[in-house]
Amino acid sequence: IYLLKMNKYNTHTHTHIYMIYDYISNSASFCLPNHSTTVRRPFPLSHGTTTLGFIFQGGVIAAADTRASAGGLVACPAVHKITPIHSHLVVTSSGSGADCMLWERILTREIRLYQLRHRRRLSIRGTAKLLSFMLHPFKGTEVCVALTLCGWDKESGPKLIYVCSDGARLQGDIFSVGSGSPYAYGVLDGGLKWSLSKDEAISLAREAVFRATHRDAYSGNNVDLFHITAQGWSQRKREDLKEEYYRDMEKRSKDRRGKIKRE
Amino acid sequence: QLSETKMLSAQGFGDPGKMKDYHYTGPVEHKFSPYAFNGGTVLAVAGEDFAIVASDTRLSEGYSIHSRDSPKCYKLTDTTVIGCSGFHGDCLTLTKIIDARLKMYKHSNNKTMTSGAIAAMLSTILYGRRFFPYYVYNIIGGLDEEGKGAVYSFDPVGSYQRDTYKAGGSASAMLQPLLDNQIGFKNMEGVEQVPLTQDKAVQLVKDVFISAAERDVYTGDALRVCIITKEGINEQTIPLRKD
Questions:
Q1: ipTM of the prediction
Q2: pTM of the prediction?
C-alpha cells in the first residue's frame, strides 16, 4: 500500500519497473544515481561470500557460507544467504547484503502476484528473466546482486540460473559466486559427476564451501545446505565450520602418524 | 598516480617513514560532505521475556562534545525501543519518519505495529534511500507477539536480521566480541549454557559500557538503559566517564 501511495505514475501491471524505480528514489531529486553528484559514503557495506549450486542426478544442491563482512569487520556471523522463494525454488545471494535481501523480497512478491493473476506458477527461466529485467534499470549504479536461482520445474526438471546486476543471465549445471568462488570451483570441478549419490553430493558441496572459507578471508563461520528435488526443497542443519576444521586437522595428523609408523 | 611514484622514489632513501611526513601532495580539494559522524554506541540484548536497549548519551563531532545528555534510544511503542547511532541529523529524521509511519499504520489498521513489522518497515525505509543512505546504525529491541525478547539489527541500507544480542555504533567492534563470549558462550569450553536472567543482563550491559567508555573516545558521559517487559518500559540512567 505504501508503494502505491508513493507512486506518481499510473501503474498497470507491466510498468512495475517504474514503480520500483520510483520507490527507490522517492523524495529529493539528488537521490537519483548520477555519477557527477554521487555522495561518498563514510561507511562500508556488507559484501564478500562463497555460494555455490550444482545439478546432479538427485536434483539440485545449493550451499553457502554465513559470513557478512563490512570492510574488515564481520558484521554478522550467521546470515542466511540461501532463501526459499517458494516450495520448489531457492535463491542463493552474493554481493551487497541489503541489495540481495530487498531484491529477493521484491522477487518473491512479483512471483506471488504472477501466480495469483495467471493461476499457474512462473517457470524458473521466467523468474530469472523477470529478475534480470527488474534489475536492468539499476545497471551502472552501485546495486550489486549476484543471485543463483536453484529450482525444480514441473515441465523441465532441475534448473540452475545465475542472474546478476550487471545484466548477466546464464543457465548452467554448476555455478559458484562470490569472493571464495575460485576455491569452491576447484573442489567442485575435481569431484563433480552426474552420477553422485545424494550423500556424496552433499559432502562435496560442504567440502567446497569449507575449503573456500578456509582460504578466503571474507567467507566463513557456518555452511548452509539446501537440496531441491521434484518434491520441493529441504534444508540441512547449519554446520559450524570451525569444528570441521579441527576434525580435518585431527584426520591429517592421524594420517601423518600412520605414515611415519609404516616408514 | 603521481603520489605513488613519489612514494616509491622516497623508499630509495633509507628512511621512508620520515619522507612520508614531509611529503607534499599539492592542493587537495575537499568536497562538501553531507555526512558527519556524531559518535555513540548502542546495544540491545533479548532475553526470554524481556529486552534491553542501552545507549550512551554523548554527542560528539571531531574533537568536540556537543552534548553530554543526548540519549540514542527512542521509544516507538509500548513494546519496542529503537537505538540509532551515527549521524545525528539522519537519526532525528529517521525516528520522525518511523513515528509518522507508526501513526499511519495505527490509523489504517487499528492496531499497533509489532516489533517484527517495524523491523521490516524500517528495512524498506532505509533501502528507499539506497543511493544516498541514512548514515545510521539501527538496532530495534522489543517483545515479539509471543512475549519473547527480540532484537533486530540493521546496516545503513536496510539489511536486517533477528539476533539475540547486538552492539552498534562507534564501539561496536569492541563490544560485539565480548557479548559473543558472555551471552553467546562462543569460544568457551566446558561452560554451562544457562539462559540469561534480567538482572544479570542489566549488570552485563552496564559493565560492558563502562569498558567501552574506557577505550572508545566517542562513548561516555552517561548510559541510558531501557528495559522492556510486558509491564512496560523501565528507564535507568547510569553515569560513565566524562573524559
A1: 0.76
A2: 0.81
